[in-house]
């Protein structure tokens, strides 16, 4: 069951829909899930004021410094692998770290390659939150989405929402505030990362 506070649009993005590209510093690769406004070039140059946010999932294969994004804040989580050590602070699976885009960050692998999920957004123009949600097979989750744009990234398992079915590494996008029910399907635990964004 899905209860709407307003008319909404749901869209499922499969991994094949993501745009794979190099990091800003050229030291790795990332899969861009979505960017706003649409068709904005990334990474933005210093004079580009159009870029507001970008959601992506990166593959980290080696110890490397992070790209820097002045004027932006970031959320980051590891969803596959043992984790990252960021400036001596461990980021383990299911944990979420928020940091400033201009801060120098050294990312070292704790034990082998990882996949991460994150969002970069302009702090003066965008309000953002990121949270982790888990459910057992067959469990229904009631989510209250209060912002304007929402990305539900399926890190593990699969779920059903209305007629939509979403599997691991896929993303459900909702563009209005609403109360939402998702149902965990299959035989493994469901792990989701919920990113909510709105203009200030």
UniProtKB/TrEMBL annotation:
Pfam family name, one: HutD
Name of the molecule in the record: HutD family protein
Highest taxon listed in the record's lineage: Bacteria
Gene3D superfamilies referenced in this protein's UniProt entry, alphabetically: Jelly Rolls
